[in-house]
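2.7 Reproducibility. Because tokenized structures are sensitive to small changes in the input, we list the exact sequence used for Voltage-gated potassium channel, including any N-terminal residues retained from the expression construct. No trimming or masking was applied before prediction.
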Amino acid sequence: MVIFQRLFYKLISVSNRLVFLTSLFLIGISSILIYVLEPDTFENPFNGFWWVMTTVTTVGYGDFSPVSAAGKILAMGLYIFGIGLISIVISKVVDQIFLFQRRKEQGKMDFTGANHFVIIDWSTNAKLAIQEILHSDPEVQIVLIDQLDTTPLSHERVHYVQGNPIQQSTLEQANLKEAKAVFVFANEVTDFGNFIQDASYVDGKTLLIATTIERYYEEIYTIVEVKDRSNVENFVHVDIDEFILSTDTISQMAVRSAFHPGSSRIVSQLLSKQHGDDLYEIKKRPHWSTYRDAFNELLKEGATLVSNGEKLNINRQLDREIPDDARLFVICDEETYKRVK
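Resulting structure tokens (single pass, no recycling of outputs):
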């Protein structure tokens, strides 16, 4: 018994490749041998393979069984070695699944997808952004970069990368070069769990991250959250596509609500695809010449044309021609958008 225990422990310690190859060899040679030894009983090699698999997995249907002494000796060999070997194979497969899941939760695996969104630094705003992205697109993948020991959010479409976003290796692990856009959120908590009260320090870290992104991935669309408006000037040498001033936005919405009750709910509805009508981008149709053509046709279809990119004054320019590179935005529900896009 001690001999078998030692043999079992040695098999567990050997490489996965050797265990799998040995198992395949044992199953293959046993399937052929049992057919050679008893061709009348098993009729063809596949039946021999079937009998070996039901034996080593301890299923034992009993539809095939050896009748000769040689066949029974082979069966006893499978009982002694085959069942134990397959048990080790199964345990190693389970271990690999567990290891894969643990490495994924710890952010140790490379992301190989493309056209994904990259979120840098975990925060309440980052969490809200991820939820909104997941709700807006049922297929898009998200990569979250942070230095937490394990992922703060478990979701099948959220891939976690643990590392310092200032290092190029971390950005490469997130496959940033093939990402659709990257969001850099302000992180007010240090690696030791301390809260940073000075917004300049928070924006300073954000600036370092943005500089690293610009150095290695200058073509990617970059959106940065800044805590203090006065620090935006410090980003002038970095090609940032958009800035988010969260504190300003909250203050402005609060004031608007005071003067115009309900206005904040309208803005929130347009910012989120989870409630009511939303803001969508559509392409210019070939037969549209002026904004009036587009406005009137879209209105009949249930959508309201509101802007060309950042220009919200098209209602005062209805008779102007629509540029070929126009980015037209409309307000409508999801069903209408599917019809007009």
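The chain is about 50% helix and 10% strand.
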